[in-house]
Amino acid sequence: MLKKILFILCVLTLVNTAYAQRVEDKPYVSDTTKWSKPKKATFMAFVPGLGQIYNKKYWKLPIVYGGFAALIYSVGFYQTQYDQLKQAVLDRNANKPLSDPTLEPLDLANLISFRDFYRENRDLSWIGMGGLYALQILDAAVDAHLQEFDVTENLSLKWQPNYRIQSGQAFVGATVWLQLGKSIKK
Description:
Strand order of the largest sheet: 1-2
Low-confidence stretches: 16-21
Number of domains: 2
Mean pLDDT: 79
Helix content: 40-55%
Distance between the termini: 46 Å
Radius of gyration: 32 Å
């Protein structure tokens, strides 16, 4: 146990200083009196399409509303078919004549199978609607975040070999700079 503690202490004393990024002169001050653009876009996205309108991405509206329209239609279609087959299963179990004559040739196992098929697809349509709702909220929030992102022509990634002497020891390594629109100051 003592050997492990001494080994850890030796390793910790031999570790060199880590270098981090430079800190800007001005500290970041958050303005809490006003909503940020991403927060506002996320809030507005709770009404489908409103976040896309806020971000001025009007071309996304037909996608959002078309997706909701298709999913609402599929929920209605599958619910109607499910109700019809559910009633047919109940009628077949009660030895009553089926209300839909096209279902007469089907036996009870097939009616139950079709009923379960339409119920599953109706449930999947509801899940798809929830997924589309969450996706349009996520899209509005991410789009609002990226509108403030600086995309200029002056983007570069530079690599340079590095040789440094620190505490009497020589270190060889590589330095990588990522330039985002402003010149790099050493």
